[in-house]
Amino acid sequence: MSSTFIPQRAMFIFAHPDDIEFGSAGTAALWSKNGCDVTYVVLTDGNIGSHERGMTAAKLAQIRREEQTNAANVVGARCLFLGEPDGMLQPTLDLRKKLVRLIRQYKPNVVVCGDPNFYYSDSYINHPDHRAAAQVALEAIFPCADSPLIFPELLEEGYEPHKVNYVYISFGRRESNCYIDISETIDTKLTALKQHKSQMKDWDPEERMRQWTAETGKKVGFKYAEAYHRITLKEIEEETAPEAETPGDEAQRRAQEG
Ligand SMILES: [Zn+2]
């Protein structure tokens, strides 16, 4: 199926700076420009991803947070960092609780995350951080975000249970059950991706990204597309969709700017 659905609030949960840009920033940009409140949650700082002499993990963390924040700004998303260890990410209960807190705070109708499988093609093993990020995101969404009796301290902090309506698992170029037409936001996706200068170096990702998203789009007749496995947890009823109690600074700023 292809989808023209625009959620009111979406949260993207991924392991590293640049993961969102590669897989789903076209979707984030499309939703954002149509009024969706978009939150990125980046679990690690991606701060072991350098072979450069003289680079330190602390310095790289700062660079990559800046690049990721710039990439989020390109699509109009707020960006939160959890500072988990890059390369050693684990789907711990502690991290799950942090995500449950954020889901209850921002009340996304849709959460977009990665794929928790070990492998999904004959030429690729899923990165352990990507697998862990996907697993902990899914475990936070179901059943914890909606269960008042798990993490009771969150209730005491005022975070009421929240049910996510749909989960979009980023599926790259594989067969999927949901295709988002990103023809009008492919340029924004590329601009966002190019913010990750420390990773791109001299490589211009444009040709490769256009090729990948065009291959995906071809399956459903779009010029460019991003693909997902979409899971419906609770069909949305627009008139009863809950309002976020704490939309956050960025949303307030945007609301004030009209
Ligand atoms: Zn990654």
Describe this structure in words.
Helix content is 39%, strand content 18%. The longest helix has 19 residues, at 57-75. The protein has 258 residues and is of the alpha/beta class. The chain has helices at 19-23, 25-33, 57-75, 93-106, 128-141, 152-156, 186-193, 197-200, 206-218, 248-257, and strands at 9-14, 37-44, 78-84, 110-113, 119-121, 124-125, 166-170, 178-181, 225-232. Helix 3 runs antiparallel to helix 7. It is built from 10 helices and 9 strands. The chain has a single domain, classed as Rossmann fold, CATH 3.40.50. A hairpin with a 2-residue loop joins strand 5 and strand 6 (124-125). It has a 7-stranded mixed beta sheet, with helices on both faces. Strands 5-6 form a two-stranded antiparallel ribbon. Residues 244-258 have low confidence and may be disordered. Residues 15-16, 19, 127, 130 line the site of zinc ion.
List the keywords.
258 residues; alpha/beta; Rossmann fold; two-stranded antiparallel sheet; 10 helices; 18% strand; disordered C terminus; binds zinc ion
